[in-house]
Batch of 2 targets.
Target 1
Amino acid sequence: MPKPRLQQLMSERQLWHARGAGVARRNTQHSVSSGFAALDQALHLGGWPVHGSTELLCSQSGIGELELVLPSLAERSRQRPVLWLNPPHLPFAPALEQHNLSCHQHYVLRCTTPREQLWAAEELLRSGAFSSLLSWFDGRPLQDRQLRRLHLAAREGNCWHLHFRDIRCQPQTSPAPLRLSLSASSQHLHVEVFKQSGGHAGQRLQLPRPASLLWQQQPASSWPVYRQAPRRRLNLVASSRPEGALQRLPLGLDTLPRPGTPH
C-alpha cells in the first residue's frame, strides 16, 4: 500500500504544524471557552480542548475546581447530557441551576470497585451519548495504559473527559493533552498549566474564588449566621384531636440560616 501523503496526515491531525498554532486557536470546533479570559489566553487553543482527557490535579477537593469548568459545561450540556462518575459529593441541583445547567441534562453514576469504574468510564466515553464526563478515581493511581485507554475512548466518542486527580499524581506521565494543577489561598484559585500539547506550559494564574467557599472552609461558629442576634421565636400550633384541642409546639428559628447565607 502506498504511504499516506503529508497533507492527509495533517488533515487527520496526526502531525502538528508549528506555524499552524494560530489557526488551531481559531478553530472553535476543537475547543470551548473556559469563561475566564486569563485562562483562555494561557491555553493555546483559546479554551478547553473538548476531545479527549483533561486532567485537573487538585491539592484537595472543594477548592473551586468545579467553578472552573461549570461555564463550559453549561454550553456543552445543550448538545448532549453530562455524566458525573463517582463524584466525592452529590451535585447540588440549585447550584447547577444558578450556573445555567439544567438538572435534566446531568446524570450521576456510582461504581463499587475500581475495575467496574474503569470499565464504565471507557464504555461511556466511547458511546457518544454524553458531551462531557467528570470522573474521580479513588485508591491507587491509574497506570499509563489505563489513562491512555480513557483518553482514546473520549476522542472516539467525541466526549470531553474531565479527570479530577490528586496533585500527588503530577509527576506521573499521562497522555492527557492538557494538565492543570490547582491549589487555593484565602481568596484565589491558583492555576498552573503543567502540560498542554502543541503549546507552551508553565503559565501561572490567579482566579478569584467564590465567596461561599471561603466560609465553608472556616469553622461553623465563625459564619455570619451565628454572629447575628437571636431572632424572635415563633410558636406553631397543631390540632391533635377533631374537636379542636390545641397543643403548642415551640419551634426555634434562631438556629436557621437566613436566605442567601452559607449553611
Note: DSSP finds nine helices and twelve strands in the chain.
Target 2
Amino acid sequence: METLGFMAAAFSPMNLLLAVLGVAAGIFIGALPGLSATMAVAVLVPVTFGMPTEAALIMLGAIYTGAIYGGSYAAILVNTPGTPSAIATTFDGYPMAQRGDGDLAVTLSTLSSMVGGLVGALALLTLAPLLAQIALKFGPVEYFWLAIFGLTLISALSEGSTLKGFIGAGIGLLLSTVGVAVVGADIRYAFGSQFLLGGVEIISALIGLYCIPVLIDLVATPSAHLEPPEEGRGVRFNESLGLMWRSKFNSLRSAVIGTIVAILPGAGGSIASLVSYSEARRTSPRHERFGHGEPDGVIATESANNATVGGGFIPTFVLGIPGTPPDAVILGALLVQGFRTGPEMFTTNANVTYTFIGGLFIATLLMLPLGLLIGRYAFKSIVSIPKALLVPSIAFMTVIGTYAIRNNPFDVVVMVVLGVLGWVLSRYGIKASPIVLGLILGPIAEQGFVQGYLMGNASGSVLTVFFGRPISMAIIALTLIAVFYPLWRARRDRIVKNSNEEPRHEH
C-alpha cells in the first residue's frame, strides 16, 4: 500500500504538467533527425537542478519516453530514423507510407509504443531487483557474442542478398575502428587528422547514411514523395486497434524482448528492435511480406524499443550501470541531486523511485492522445509540403543536427561523405542498416573480444573463455539460428515452389 501511495504522488498537478510537457517535447525532438533522445535529455538536465528530485526524474523520463516514440515519425514518413532505435521501423513503416498507409503506420506505432512502454514500466516496478541479477552474469565475452548476434540479425534481415547484408555489416565494422582503440588506445586509420581521433560519430553517420540518399532520390525523381491519404480517414484508430488485436502476441512478445535486452547495459533499443523484428518475421505466416510494408514489422519494432525505456532503468537504479545512453544522463542527474543508486533506491529512497515509476506510467499513457494528435497533423503536413520546400528543410535539419552533436564542422563533412557512399552502395543492393549497426556494435564487439582474449591468455585457455560459459553458448546458438534459418527457409520455399510448378509443366 505504501508503494501505491508513493506512485499516486505522480498525479499531482505539477507532475502531470511536467509529464505532458516532457512527452510533447520529446516527440518533437525525437522526430527530427539528429536530435536524439540522449541529446533531448542532456539539454534538459540543467533545467531540472532546481526541481524536487521526483519532478526532475518525471520530466526527464517523460521526454525520454516521447523521444523514443517520436523517432518513428521520421522513420515512417521520410525513411530516416529520428533515433537509432527506430532503424528497424524503416523496414516496413516507410513502404507503408509509400503506398498511402502512413497514417495507419503512425497510429500502429503509437499503440505499439504505449504497449511496449507499459510492459517496460511494469517490469521496472515488479522485477527490478531480480532481473538486475541477470545483467551481473554478463562479462566481456557475453557482450562480444551479443554484438555478433546483433550483426547477424541485421545482415540476415537485409533486403535481397544475405551476402550483401554481411558486406554492409563489415563496412560498418571497419568504420568503427577509425580513431583511438577502445582497449589499448592505439590510433588507427586517422590519417594524421585530429578530427578522426574521436572516430566516426554514430549519429552523424546515421543521419548521413539515411538522410542523404533519401534527399538524392527526392531530387532525382519527379513523382510525389508520399501518396496523399484519402479524405476523412483521420488516424484510422479502429483499423489500427483491429491489427493490434490480431498481433497481440507479437506486440507482447516484442515488448518482453525489449525489456530483457534493455537490462543488458549497452545493448539498447537498436538491438532490441532488431531481435523482436527477426522473431516476428520468423513466426509470422506472412513472413514474405516483411520489408514490403507489413504492419507486424512496425508493431514489433515499436513495442520493443519503447519497452527499453523502463527496462533500461533496472540496471541504472539497482546496479548504477546505465542500460542505455539516456539512462547515463539521467543517472548523472540523480548523482547531482545527491542520490546513490543501489538497493537503497527501493528502500531508503523508495518515495522518489516509486513516484518516478508512477510518472513513467503516466508519460506512457499520455503518448496515446498526444501521439495521435501530433501524428495526424505530422503526416498530413509532410505529405502536403512540396519537394522544393521539403528537401531544403530536411537538408538544413541534417546539417544543424549533425553539427550540434559535438559542435564540430568535420562531422558535417563525414555525414555528407557517408551519405553519398550510402547512396552509391544502395545502387548495388547494400543497404544502410547493416552499416549503421556495424558501426554501433563494432566497439562493443571489439572491447568484449580484446578483454576476453586477455582473460583467456591469463587463464591459459582462450577457447574456454569464449566457448565455455553457458550464456555464451546460448547466444552462439541463437546467432547460428539467425544466420542459417533464413537460408534454410529460402531453400525450403524454393523447393515448394518448384514442386508446385512441376505438374503444370507436364500438361
Note: DSSP finds 20 helices and two strands in the chain.
